[in-house]
Design a protein that fits this description.
mainly alpha, Arc Repressor Mutant, subunit A, 3-stranded antiparallel sheet, 6 helices, 3 strands
Length: 123
């Protein structure tokens, strides 16, 4: 998988696309100008970078995602856990909860998620 790292501005731009796709380049140019203050050339430069990363595709004047926002977030999370915690989700959770305590609701949600995963394995 290519480097999916995005800066703050690239992320804002990607979120504009995800929220409105498919979107024509004309609409996207106007949106980027209005929301980000970009010129047409800036929009195309950033769009090209995001297309090169495999996030979006531009075909016949229309921009579509190749990777949904949810998939992007999942891949980024996997990359973080792999690179920082040797692929260990428990090590990640241990590090995360050292500084930030989970609420009762979060613990319940995690338990339900784990229970659902265990049920799925039994089938």
């Amino acid at each position: 998988m290519s480097d999916l790292t995005m800066g703050l501005i690239e992320t804002r731009f990607a979120e504009l696309i995800w929220a409105r796709e498919p979107i024509s380049t004309g609409e996207l140019t106007a949106l980027a100008q209005r929301e980000l203050g970009w010129k047409r050339s800036t929009m195309y430069t950033v769009l090209r970078r995001l297309c090169d990363k495999g996030l979006f595709t531009l075909e016949e004047g229309t921009v579509r995602s190749r990777m949904s926002r949810e998939t992007y977030e999942a891949v980024k999370s996997e990359q973080l856990i792999d690179s920082s915690f040797g692929g260990s989700v428990p090590a990640f959770l241990a590090a995360f909860t050292r500084r930030r305590k989970l609420t009762e609701a979060e613990v319940k949600e995690l338990r339900a998620l784990i229970d659902g995963l265990e049920e799925g394995r039994k089938k």
